[in-house]
Amino acid sequence: MTEEKKETLPVDEVETAEEATVTEESTETVEEKTTEQLLQEEIETLKAQLADEQERHLRLRADFDNVRRRQTTEREAMQKYRAQGLLTDLLPVLDNFERALQVEATTEESASIVKGIEMVYKSLVEAVEKEGLTVIEALGKEFDPNFHQAVMQEQDADQPSGVVLREMQKGYQLKDRVIRPSMVSVNE
Predict the structure, then answer these.
(1) According to its UniProt record, which protein family does this protein belong to (predicted)?
(2) CA angle 170, 176, 84 (to 5 degrees)
(3) 81-187 has which CATH code?
(4) What is the sign, positive or negative, of the torsion defined by CA atoms of 151, 163, 133, 169?
(5) Where are the alpha helices (DSSP H) in 81-165?
(6) Distance of CA 55 to the CA centre of its chain
(7) What's the number of CA atoms in the CB half-sphere (13 Å) around residue 23?
(8) Hey, which residues does 154 pair with through a beta bridge?
(9) Who's near 133: CB < 8 A, 6+ residues apart?
(10) What DSSP string describes 25-67?
């Protein structure tokens, strides 16, 4: 029996050594799997963060482009309409010159004054036209609320309905912007 024990002991020791090796291998495999899983999770997290940052970058770039476009448009509008304030202030001056030119000159002295007023008026009109100020045509035109302000209605059987019959005050526009609509009388 002692011999058998000797023989079985080494077998038992071999089995225990194999079991220990298997246990170590399975522990290493579990650790490797856990490490691989952790690395895979970290990779997925980093991919998600990268995608978020790329989307954020694209949004910021689009916002920047929009701001730049808006600033360019505003700068162009400021340049285009830079004289609007001054021209608006000059409209009553133009009206007064036109009224002064409607007065009939009865003497030679008053005729020369009217001629001087006319020369100043023409110079002023040329200067404002260089800046883009134009008169809005109204007489005989179809009433357009974008360009005309109706202050009264009249009846004229010879004209179609909605046509401007009289202009009480000239209207002006600066390039494509109305700065003062024409005050008109419209046919019923």
Answers:
(1) Belongs to the GrpE family.
(2) 70
(3) 2.30.22.10
(4) negative
(5) 84-102, 108-130
(6) 23
(7) 6
(8) 187
(9) 87, 172, 173, 174, 179
(10) HHHHHHHHHHHHHHHHHHHHHHHHHHHHHHHHHHHHHHHHHHH
Instruction: Give me the phi and psi of 186, to 5 degrees please.
Output: -115, 145
Residue owning tokens 């202009």: 167
- Pairing between strand 133-136 and 148-154? unpaired
For the record, the structure tokens of 40 come out as 């895979």
Tell me the domain boundaries of the chain. 1-80, 81-187
Any residues with CB less than 8 A from the CB of 135 and at least 6 apart, and which? 170, 171, 172
Distances 46 to 52, 53, 58, 186 between C-alpha atoms, Å:
10, 10, 18, 72
Judging by DSSP bridges, how do beta strands 164-169 and 182-187 pair with one another?
antiparallel
